[in-house]
Amino acid sequence: MSLYGTMRTGVSGMNAQANRLSTVGDNIANASTAGYKKSSTQFSSMILPSSEGSYNSGGVNTTVRYSINDQGAFSYTTSSTDLAIDGDGFFIVAGADGTDYLTRAGNFEVQENGTLQNSAGFTLMGYPYKANEDPTIVINGFEGLTEINVTSGGMTATPSTEGLVAGNLPAKEAIGYKKSSSLVAYDSQGNGRLLNLTYEKTNDNEWELSVDFTDSGTPPVTTNLSTTTLTFDAKGKLTAPTAPITTTAIPSTSLGGAELGALDIDLSKLSQLGAAYSITGNINGQGASAVDKVEISKDGVVSILYKNGQSVPTYRIAMANVQSPNNLRPLAGNVYSQSNDSGVVVMGYAGSVGYGNILSGALEDSNVDIAEELTTMIESQRSYTANSKVFQTGSELLDVLVNLKR
């Protein structure tokens, strides 16, 4: 047995416990960091060749392991852009250098330029999205991703294209009876335009419907957009027209630069019965409005909600996973990158197989247990002291050996 070997073994033990204390320190420091995954130090023995009657002490090796697939608890907030993943998967975020990373830290805030960044300065990525039309994913790469921008649409207006009129025309009224109702349609610039629908009884079971538009000029000018004959059978059911009527488009010259497009108006819900005049209806489209807030669904669809109540799905949050999450490479900013042992990155959407749901207004807490870390700290301190005693004893014995010469 070598006294130098004994001292080296003691140093090996002290270094191992110092590494363990380092992971404990990191864990305690990040106990309040959203989405942080704790690390731990694992030990393995180093055995040196020995002969009969002579033992060569070895040492100890350390390996750091990460509990990345160990989900933390959730804390709920009042911000719709605070996001947590309930289940497997990672958000994809871009750093200032444009490189894409994985993270579970979903404390995103809307920036001045409309992007969503978490507290470490990483920007949330996704795919442009239209209602009921999922974008195509590059399964094994980050191509096609773009920064999610919740103010990119600015103010918005949706011109009217179709409408519905329902209700009853009184069957007992005399020929020549006339009644009107109005509906609002929106032009190409989001201005509300009033349409007047006039019903006149022209014969038994027959009515004439005129759709007129009156501009706001001086003097006002009324334009007829459509005139249609409505016919009903003996039971008061509409028999013609069988298809929606189409109004005439009004050119921009008549509307101060805007345009009111042609409208398809469905009349199939009209009846002629022995009851009072009662007409309801609706025309699609939205007036000009600014962004109010952001809504994010559990499957990751980001919708921009405008102040007029219109909700427009704009992006879908991209998610990623790997075969061995615990072997991802941790980097500064609570993000991860692919390593040789983690397996390749596979892309997907929240709610699909292999990916959890997204919780809006929630954050995933760190999975650090303070009590466990403090216990580990005490154990490491005791073990470090014991290893230092081994080194000290070997040093004292070496002094005895040196002094034998005197």
TrEMBL record:
Protein keywords: Bacterial flagellum, Cell projection, Cilium, Flagellum
Keyword Hydrolase: no
Domain Flagellar hook protein FlgE/F/G-like D1 stretches: 84-154
Gene3D superfamilies: Flagellar hook protein FlgE (2.60.98.20)
Domain Flagellar basal-body/hook protein C-terminal, residue spans: 360-404
Main subcellular location: other
InterPro entries attached to this UniProt entry: Falgellar_hook_FlgE_sf (IPR037058), Flag_bb_rod_N (IPR001444), Flagellar_basal_body_rod_CS (IPR019776), Flagellar_FlgE/F/G (IPR020013), Flg_bb/hook_C_dom (IPR010930), FlgE/F/G-like (IPR037925), FlgE_D2 (IPR011491), LlgE_F_G-like_D1 (IPR053967)
Location in the cell: Bacterial flagellum basal body
Membrane-spanning segments: none
Domain Flagellar hook protein FlgE D2: 169-280
PROSITE patterns: FLAGELLA_BB_ROD
A Pfam family this chain is assigned to: LlgE_F_G_D1
Top-level taxon in the UniProt lineage: Bacteria
Stretches assigned to the Flagellar basal body rod protein N-terminal domain: 7-37
Family, as annotated: Belongs to the flagella basal body rod proteins family.
PANTHER family, A to Z: FLAGELLAR HOOK PROTEIN FLGE (PTHR30435:SF1), FLAGELLAR PROTEIN (PTHR30435)
Protein's job: A flexible structure which links the flagellar filament to the drive apparatus in the basal body.
Protein name: Flagellar hook protein FlgE
Organism (species): Rhizobium lemnae
